[in-house]
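hey can u run this one w/ KG4 bound, need the structure tokens asap thx
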Amino acid sequence: MPVIILGIESSCDDTAAAVVQDGILLSNIVANQEVHRKYGGVVPELASRAHQQNIVPVVDQALKMAGIKSEDLSAVAFTRGPGLLGSLLVGSSFAKGLALAREIPLVEVNHLQAHILVHFLKQPDRDISIPAFPFLCLLVSGGHTQLMIVRDYLDMEIIGKTIDDAAGEAFDKSAKVMGLPYPGGPLVDRYAREGNADAYAFTKPLIKDLDYSFSGLKTAFLYFIRDRLKEDKDFIEQNRNDLCASLQKTIVEILTDKLEKAFLQTSINRVALAGGVSANSGLHERIKWLAQNHGWEVFIPEISLSTDNAAMIAITGYFKFLAGKFAGLHISPLARLPI
Ligand code: KG4
Ligand code: ZN
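ok here u go:
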């Protein structure tokens, strides 16, 4: 009997569903919520409402695309947290209802663990290189920045984390200062390609061990722009590419300095990226350069699997299903949920 898992993701502003059969991706549907753009960030109340509207059509589409009927499912996996509570409630309630109606097991998934386990997702039409254990993983998203040692599918240790903002927030908030729409990370990346990364210098924080901090950079960037605008009201427009390139270079160096330190401390030379910021082209370049210098084997998920998606929830659900780790129907989502 094949193991067929439906994954449901609703932790922030993407409503997503995916089907994985025996570890192979059959479908992966994401409905982005455009409604937040004009507010310059995610509005929790609006996100919950949009999830409520999207969840049934998104799940229907995922099943149809996979050629799977709901009665064929072995289990339903959902994001329990971390995330926005109102958003999580929509996905978890739907998953519980489906599990109850179909009399199939329910599997709760940690969103952060799922970002990492997406590296083990197989595709029907191509070979994917999969990291051997143990490996280092830099998890960089809009809400999280963590360095981990991944010892097994469900055995991970956090060895460094941000003490304030996440790397994605540093991108998004600085982009907002430049008048760019939310989420600004991909736009900064795009403008940075045309800019000079050495045009401006921003100081990097001195944080102990393998931890990170981004709030100082965010504030320094804000004050820098504010002061320049006093002298020249067109400063941003005329220097956007250089500003983006210099900001991106600083964020990437902060991220990779600690990754390099983690490698030197642990001697683990398999390095994976995960989370939305792992789509950043400056980060790719720097990681590839470090890989050549240190002999790293590098694993970078494709963009559709690095930003929020349900394929990562389904594959994590698959490993938990195999391990017999099921959830009871009394389970409730948690805004904060450590790995
Ligand atoms: O993992 P994700 O989709 O959602 C969270 O769990 O937070 O990550 C979203 C974050 C946003 O901050 C977005 O600006 C950032 O990932 N991001 C990027 C790029 N693509 C997405 N940041 C920099 N460069 C990119 N190319
Ligand atoms: Zn995420």
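The longest helix spans residues 235-266. anyway lmk if its weird
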